[in-house]
Design brief:
alpha/beta; eight-stranded parallel beta barrel; two-stranded antiparallel sheet; about 15% strand
Length: about 400
Amino acid sequence: MKPDFESDFLWGASTSAHQVEGGNNNDWTQWEKLNAAALAAEGKSSPAREPNNYLSGQAADHYHRYEADLDLAQSIGLRAYRFSIEWSRIEPEPGRYDQAELAHYGRVIAAARKRNIEPLVCLWHWTLPVWLSDRGGWSKRANVKHYIEFVRTVSTALGPKVKFWLTLNEPEVYAFNVYMLGNWLSKRHNPWLYFHSLGNMIRGHRAAYRLIKAKFPEAQVGLADDNIYFDAFDRKWVNRIAAAIGTLFWNHLFMDRIRKQTDFIGLNYYHHVRVDYWRIRNEERYRSDMGWELYPRGLYFLILNLQRRYHKPIYITEHGLADASDKHRAWYITESLKQVKRAMDHGADVRGYLHWSLIDNFEWDSGFWPRFGLIAVDYQTQTRTVRPSARILSQIIQSGRIE
């Protein structure tokens, strides 16, 4: 019987440096210290009411435990690992690059390859060195040159060992929360800076793409982009128009500008929005611990939309849920993969699925309480435990079939 997924399909999981490494000193760690008490006061349940929940601290100590974590990834059968480079480690001061930290990430890549795990390296996942944040971060066009030099330094050091590069992670989510809403970091509610920062990230991506491809023509360069599945309640024409506007604004505004400077599309999917005039009418049959609707069918429509618009290979670079009790994760993975297969049967060129996340992680302004990992982490002892849902995913990987 023919498998649902061929043997070269890239199965993996993802993390980001700030969320799992621990011991970071960047603009997020500073923001955490200033806002932990206020975030705890807004918490709706314990441990969300504890200020320490919002301090990343040692996180999952992945910086020191990456080999053991990759052993667990290998035991599940994962063949790919997406992780990010912490910019503040590489360039703690303007123009001073830490060779020891570059060597550390070289060892992470080597450790993955030793286990036959393909490393996908993300160059920027939301954190900035303090000195760059103080200079305005992505809101200042003059700072794009610092990103380009960072990319040049990292790609020169690690490039011979890396096939897949992701220049940026979810630029719209970052810019929307930092500048449009003013919820994160800058606390600056400024729609102009939202669009200006996106423009600067587009410039940064284009330059990074050209730089890496010039050095390593065989490298595959893209980015991880958050897509929301917008659909229309009752298919009313006004709702269809609203859903189309949402899709264009959120899913395509950035990607349309870089379509010639990307070898693949990294799709991150978490949210579904069913529009009914000014209201949202989702089915809400299942929710994650964070209250996000679990809607597997959205993957099918998003994949086909991306394929027909851009004609690029697609890797699902993030897809998961906060589920501390692990009651929905196996169902969600299985049903979502059915939708991926359905899209592939309709001609979509999907080449990989990377779950978010490999291990439990620090979830930004929500802190430690959301549990996204295929592998559970006891933050008191740093003990790892493979969740039962990860074993279900492992069976799918081994058989190539969705039961």
